[in-house]
């Protein structure tokens, strides 16, 4: 018997969520964002599962794109951060990758390169996030340089939203109008929305959308948002109860004795800890599903295990299955109890946790 901690990945759920993104923006192509090992879900498996459907894939960097190409994935792939040194352009050329251009250094490398195949470029403009991209007043001149360069096949204009997950859409609308007016005279298609932009009430006209977190079934709009119902959770983080004990009133559980038993307490120990990627900051009361019933964390999460309250679940026995997040407990809810977001939970699952795929 192996340690029971594992993550079940439902590839049908990811295909469903991709189709939902397309349905919300029916006139756009959708670049499925599978950077960071597909947010912890396994980039090659997710890439293969979506290869018949996906208009393109988006990854952070060359290394992530090469992993997909080596596994036989032939869809267009966009490097969202572009290149970090000019030598990477040889692989970009050879593997026919699309690249973001967001800095003058990247622009210069590209204009000076000798490429065999003209490259497709996503020109990034800073419309208010103030992290990457050309200023609105610089964008048209950069576009002209790219448009005149024989090594460039096509240019898409791109920007990124900083606050599209908020109920108040005013900042996103401000970004859209900043972008629209800066590119008004540029004859090129546009790419604006991340998942939050796709799910938000703020609408943008665009040839390409860039869904990420929503593919994995977690809405970035918060636990109560209607978009939760559109999406199917793709990852179910699972383990099992491997020890049970009874403690009298007043005893404390785990490191630091954070939880104090206020009644005779039946404690279940689960084989799942922060070294598996479960958040150490989960507070007492964080929901956990135990074989058909809701339970809660009691005591601090340890490296290899955590403790749950089984006092009201007397029939639960050693070996019973546990879900930490997934179908029964949303990752957003666990994130809310751990001062984080579903993105860090998914990307934080460690290599000690085997990924098992269903509905390949
Ligand atoms: C990661 C990323 C996305 C996807 O964002 P989500 O919030 O996960 O949908 C979209 N665009 C860019 C440029 C990104 O880096």
From TrEMBL:
A GO molecular-function descriptor: pyridoxal phosphate binding
Residues annotated to bind substrate: 131, 303
UniProt keyword Membrane present: no
Keyword presence, DNA repair: no
GO BP: any one term: D-alanine biosynthetic process
EC assignment: 5.1.1.1
Sequence positions bearing N6-(pyridoxal phosphate)lysine: 35
NCBIfam families associated with the record: alr (TIGR00492)
Protein name per its UniProtKB record: Alanine racemase
Protein species of origin: Leucothrix pacifica
Gene name as annotated: alr
């Amino acid at each position: 018997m192996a340690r029971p901690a594992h993550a079940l990945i439902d590839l049908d759920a990811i295909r469903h969520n991709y189709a939902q993104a397309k349905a919300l923006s029916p006139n756009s192509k959708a670049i499925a964002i599978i950077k960071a090992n597909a947010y912890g879900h396994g980039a090659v498996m997710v890439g293969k599962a979506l290869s018949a459907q996906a208009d393109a894939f988006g990854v952070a960097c060359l290394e992530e794109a090469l992993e997909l190409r080596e596994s036989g994935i032939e869809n267009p792939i966009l490097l969202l951060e572009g290149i970090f040194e000019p030598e990477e352009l040889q692989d970009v050329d050879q593997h026919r990758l699309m690249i973001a251009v967001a800095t003058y250094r990247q622009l210069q490398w590209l204009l000076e390169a000798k490429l065999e195949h003209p490259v497709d470029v996503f020109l990034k403009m800073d419309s208010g996030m103030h992290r990457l991209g050309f200023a609105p007043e610089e964008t048209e001149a950069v576009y002209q340089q790219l448009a005149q360069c024989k090594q460039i096949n096509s240019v898409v204009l791109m920007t990124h939203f900083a606050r599209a997950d908020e109920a108040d859409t005013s900042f996103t609308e401000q970004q859209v109008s900043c972008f629209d007016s800066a590119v008004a005279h540029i004859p090129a298609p546009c790419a604006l929305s991340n998942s939050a932009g796709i799910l938000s009430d703020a609408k943008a006209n665009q040839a390409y959308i860039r869904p990420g977190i929503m593919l994995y079934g977690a809405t970035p709009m918060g636990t109560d948002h209607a978009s939760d119902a559109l999406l199917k959770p793709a990852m179910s983080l699972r383990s099992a109860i491997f020890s049970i004990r009874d403690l009298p009133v007043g005893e404390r559980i785990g490191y630091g004795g954070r939880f104090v038993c206020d009644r005779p307490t039946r404690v279940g120990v689960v084989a799942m800890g922060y070294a598996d990627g479960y958040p150490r900051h989960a507070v007492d009361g964080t929901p956990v599903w135990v074989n058909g019933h809701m339970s809660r964390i009691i005591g601090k999460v340890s490296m290899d295990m955590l403790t749950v309250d089984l006092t009201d679940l007397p029939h639960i026995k050693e070996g019973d299955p546990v879900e930490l997040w997934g179908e029964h407990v949303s990752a957003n809810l666990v994130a809310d109890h751990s001062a984080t977001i579903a993105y860090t939970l998914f990307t934080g699952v460690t290599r000690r946790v085997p990924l098992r795929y269903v509905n390949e």
